[in-house]
């Protein structure tokens, strides 16, 4: 903090008046934050209730009060408020807000630090390299690309080291598979099942503080039935197979990580925890901390929470000075990260018992009909009669959103609705649905050019479809041409896709270099299928015997049409490799991949850079080396700045964005097309190529079993674990819909098309589909039929 002379310039009384005025600007739940004086506090907040705003104002008030005390006591407070949030952009926003408030109060902009969780961990770990064993001059943070390669190597090494377990997996449920089938299974195991298992189980275990030995101990301790063959000749795998394999893969992964001097994100947290286990270091950190405020607390893993609890613990009482703010109903990361909303809910329940739970349930964002629809969703999903596992936790915390009272400081709070506020449509198909959106958007912007609007979709491929149709109004016979009306169509996924260009080109070049490698062939086919250039099909069947696929003999059964299409593409690539000069290869691949204008520009830039770097030795081999280096050195995450967020909410722009990315943002008009039952809640299914193991996904089984251990519940057998995984997915899909619905301020437009694609890899292949069941229920509740 600052010097006593600076302090004396402040007038304590005047400051007190200003702080009171600032407190009056807060809603009741936010005031509980500002009134915090010590100990744990849980704040369970609804969407739009002002979590970040509340946290910023509360921090400024707390700092202000400490200055008042400092003026009175003539002692300078040295401890800081640590604020921890999830993303770098959220941290930047929060820091800016607090600084601005402190300046308004005439206070120095110090006394607090804003971190992301990993930033904080890195800070702690790197200040004590001896304790954390984190030597940043030697270690590098692993990139996703390198991580994938490491997992692949771990899988290969594990398969060679554990022939018995590998054989057991290969045999699956049916021991006597033919040679072709065994080859196909090898391909699926090596490229899908085991890498998925490794990725999921390692992350889940590591962020729960479990080592490979711990995972092995869980596998061995369980009273699990061994593998046996049924009377029908079915081989039933032992219930601990997923954990046994996961423990081995995890061990291999850790060895490789250390050998190559890499560290992953979990290592940073573990390193910081090692520091805080040392009494002296821990006390020294604790003495710097006045309080820890955590935002988005529903997204923290157990290890991250442990770090914050230790840091926030009062060195005398051991009580954590920890304020955790979150919305359990907006937990949308639990199916692909170890974050588990249950932990935060448990924290809320614990705090409630001690009278230390604040509810921020008033929100000014949306118009009343939208609030009603969101509240209806929460009630309906929790009471849905078809929850397969009645004992599993409820998907939502029963917390209703309430509008703010009159006189709330937010300007334009709970605005009047546009039309009825909630519009529900059942268009005949997805093309007609986009047409309806185009017409409604044109009409809305004609009246209100300054408004903000967005289409929120479940996956990027849907967003791409919407953008393509909107940008070609004549071809798709749309009733409105947004471009001609000066309305920008901004597809967010498009920007992210450009970072895929080097990776895709590398994959195709690796195939050109060694086309007979099943892995290279499969990876190239996956790129072609993802870009919808070849029909979706069983890629393992094609890639397990590359020669048969690439050069079918005249006496063999003719290949089916989708296979022929895939083969033609591959043959074209191989011909290009022989016939084209080296420098034309990348532009050719870019055209083959049907890149759009911006992607082509990225590919051209890439080609120019590679040509320059390989000028002395223009061979394919050297090109591959240079390109691999470019791909591997990519940044882990693009640095998201405030600027990016504001690009998503520009006036007179229709933003097309995934529901996940839309979290934290809002628009006046929000369109949610493609609400089919198949997607929301959807059904976790096992791809046919993986069914030789049984009707379950090995990675999800391992995750559910590790979760059970962490929550100290009985370990589920394979089938119960798989059911639990499905339950988790259903709950999360509905929470995602809740996040999407609560982004809307004045109009929430939802549609379930009667004809929609079975797979968005091929949007033109329409079939009859059911709407998500909650939509029908909502129609009834609204008295519309
Ligand atoms: N006390 C307040 N006074 C004035 N405006 C407020 C107040 N609290 C919140 N707001 C306004 O409400 C809106 C929502 O706030 P914020 O983005 O902090 O909500 P949130 O709870 O983080 O939302 P979500 O969880 O849905 O992302 C913002 O525009 C913010 O300025």
Strand line-up of the largest beta sheet: 3-2-8-9-1-10
Our measurement of the CA-to-CA distance between the termini, rounded to an integer number of angstroms, reads: 63 Å
Supply the CATH superfamily name of the largest domain: P-loop containing nucleotide triphosphate hydrolases
Can you summarize the main beta sheet? 6 strands, parallel
CATH class of the largest domain: Alpha Beta
Specify the helix fraction band: 40-55%
Q: CATH fold name of the largest domain, please?
A: Rossmann fold
In this entry the ligands are: adenosine-5'-triphosphate
GO cellular component, one term: DNA helicase complex
Region (Disordered): 402-424
GO molecular function: 3'-5' DNA helicase activity; ATP binding; DNA binding; hydrolase activity
EC number: 5.6.2.4
Key descriptive features of the protein:
6-stranded parallel sheet; 10% strand; ATP binding; 4 domains; disordered N terminus; Rossmann fold; alpha/beta; 785 residues; binds adenosine-5'-triphosphate; 34 helices; 53% helix; 3'-5' DNA helicase activity
């Amino acid at each position: 903090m600052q010097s006593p002379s600076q302090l004396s310039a402040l007038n304590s009384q005047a400051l007190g008046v200003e702080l009171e005025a600032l407190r009056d600007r807060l809603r009741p739940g936010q005031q509980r934050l500002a009134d915090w004086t010590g100990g744990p506090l849980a704040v369970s907040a609804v969407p739009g209730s002002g979590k970040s705003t509340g946290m910023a104002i509360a921090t400024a008030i707390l700092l202000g009060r400490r200055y008042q005390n400092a003026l009175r006591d003539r002692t300078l407070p040295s401890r800081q408020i640590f604020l921890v949030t999830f993303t770098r952009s959220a941290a930047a926003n929060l820091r800016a807000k607090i600084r601005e408030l402190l300046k308004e109060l005439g206070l120095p902009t110090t006394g607090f630090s804003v971190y992301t969780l990993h930033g904080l961990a890195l800070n702690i770990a790197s200040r004590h390299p001896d304790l954390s064993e984190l030597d940043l001059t030697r270690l590098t943070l692993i990139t996703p690309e390198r991580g994938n390669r490491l997992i692949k190597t771990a899988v290969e090494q594990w398969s060679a080291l554990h022939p018995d377990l590998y054989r057991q997996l290969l045999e699956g449920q049916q021991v006597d598979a033919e040679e072709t089938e065994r080859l196909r299974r090898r391909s699926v195991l090596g490229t899908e099942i085991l890498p998925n298992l490794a990725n999921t189980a390692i992350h889940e275990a590591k962020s729960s503080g479990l080592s490979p030995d711990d995972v092995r101990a869980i596998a061995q301790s369980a009273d699990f039935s061994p593998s046996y063959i049924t009377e029908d000749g079915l081989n039933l795998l032992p219930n601990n197979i997923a954990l046994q394999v996961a423990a081995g893969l995890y061990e291999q992964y850790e060895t490789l990580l250390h050998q190559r001097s890499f560290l992953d994100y979990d290592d940073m947290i573990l390193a910081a925890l090692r520091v805080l286990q040392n009494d002296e270091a821990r006390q020294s950190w604790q003495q710097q901390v006045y309080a820890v405020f955590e935002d988005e607390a529903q997204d923290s893993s157990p290890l991250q929470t442990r770090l914050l609890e230790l840091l926030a613990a009062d060195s005398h009482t051991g009580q954590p000075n920890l304020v955790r703010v979150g919305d359990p109903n907006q937990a949308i990361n639990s199916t692909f990260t170890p974050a588990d909303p249950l932990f935060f809910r448990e924290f809320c329940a614990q705090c409630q018992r001690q009278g230390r739970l604040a509810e921020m349930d008033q929100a000014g964002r949306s118009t009343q009909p939208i609030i009603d629809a969101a509240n209806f969703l929460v009630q309906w999903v929790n009471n849905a009669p078809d929850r397969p596992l009645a004992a599993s936790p409820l998907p939502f915390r029963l917390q209703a959103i309430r509008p703010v009272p009159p006189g709330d400081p937010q300007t334009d709070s709970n605005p009047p609705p546009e039309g009825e506020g909630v519009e529900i449509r059942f268009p005949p198909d997805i093309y007609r649905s986009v047409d309806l959106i185009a017409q409604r958007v044109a009409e809305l912007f004609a009246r209100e050019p300054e408004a903000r609007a967005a289409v929120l979709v479940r996956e990027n491929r849907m967003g791409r479809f919407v953008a393509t149709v909107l940008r070609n109004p004549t071809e798709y016979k749309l009733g409105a041409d947004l471009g001609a009306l000066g309305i920008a169509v901004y597809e967010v996924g498009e920007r992210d896709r450009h970072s895929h260009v080097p990776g895709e080109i590398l994959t195709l070049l690796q195939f050109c270099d060694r086309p007979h490698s099943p892995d290279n062939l499969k990876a190239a086919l996956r790129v072609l299928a993802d870009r919808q250039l070849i029909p979706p099909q069983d890629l393992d069947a094609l890639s397990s015997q590359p020669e048969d696929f690439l050069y079918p003999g005249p006496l063999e059964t003719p290949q089916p049409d989708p296979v022929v299409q895939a083969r033609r593409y591959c043959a074209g690539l191989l011909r290009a490799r022989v016939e084209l000069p080296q420098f034309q290869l990348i532009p050719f691949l870019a055209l083959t991949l049907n890149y759009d204008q911006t992607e082509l520009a990225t590919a051209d830039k890439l080609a120019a850079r590679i040509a320059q770097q390989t000028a002395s030795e223009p061979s394919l081999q050297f090109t591959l080396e240079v390109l691999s280096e470019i791909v591997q050195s990519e940044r882990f995450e693009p640095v998201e700045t405030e600027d990016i967020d504001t690009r998503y909410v520009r006036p007179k722009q229709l933003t097309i964005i995934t529901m996940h990315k839309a979290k934290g943002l809002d628009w006046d008009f929000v369109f949610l097309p493609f609400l089919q039952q198949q997607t929301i809640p959807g059904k976790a299914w096992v791809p046919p190529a993986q069914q030789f193991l049984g009707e379950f996904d090995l990675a999800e089984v391992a995750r559910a079993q590790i979760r059970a251990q962490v929550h100290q519940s009985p370990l589920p057998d394979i089938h119960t674990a798989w059911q639990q995984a499905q339950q988790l997915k259903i709950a999360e899909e509905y929470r995602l819909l809740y996040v999407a619905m609560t982004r809307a301020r004045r109009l929430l437009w939802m549609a379930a098309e009667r004809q929609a694609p079975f797979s968005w890899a091929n949007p033109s292949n329409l079939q009859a589909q059911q709407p998500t069941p909650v939509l029908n229920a909502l129609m009834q509740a609204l008295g519309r039929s």
